[in-house]
Amino acid sequence: MPLAALMFTALAPTLAFAQAPAAAVAPVVAQANVSTAAALQLAERATQLAAARNMKICIAVTDADGHLLAFTRMQGAYAGCVEASIAKATSAARFAINTITFYDLARKENLAIGTIPGILPAVGGVVLKHDGAVVGSVGISGDTDLTEQKLAEDLSATFP
């Protein structure tokens, strides 16, 4: 048998598969995300709650992928809290879990979880859910652990 015929015979199943119509596959999937307007409202609400609680904080709100949608630094908030609030929100969103879980694991299990890129074992990063799906997150920094966590949880509980 000529070489060309052998090659065709060997490749025929592959060629037939490549030309077979594929099952209907959605080329694009919709991902639920917090809207920019809702993120700005959450940041404003956080600022109001923080002021009422005598807190001076930074507030970051991200989408489900951890990208920043809204940010506020209250007058008097520490400069270092800017990056911390964003990192908390980003970590919560990208792993779809509140950062206090990482914090507790690091403390109780003595895990080096903070060495994994993107994971921040800290309090104050809380996911935002809609219909059971993570649609974003909020990160709070600039006060005590307990007050940051409480404010983040309060904001999440009122969403949407």
Automatic annotation (TrEMBL):
Q: Which residues form the signal peptide?
A: 1-18
SUPFAM superfamilies xref list: GlcG-like
Query: Keywords assigned by UniProt?
Result: Signal
Q: Which InterPro entries match?
A: GlcG_carb_metab_protein, PduO/GlcC-like, PduO/GlcC-like_sf
Superkingdom field: Bacteria
The protein's name is Heme-binding protein
Organism, scientific name: Pseudomonas typographi
Q: Kindly list the organism's lineage.
A: Bacteria, Pseudomonadati, Pseudomonadota, Gammaproteobacteria, Pseudomonadales
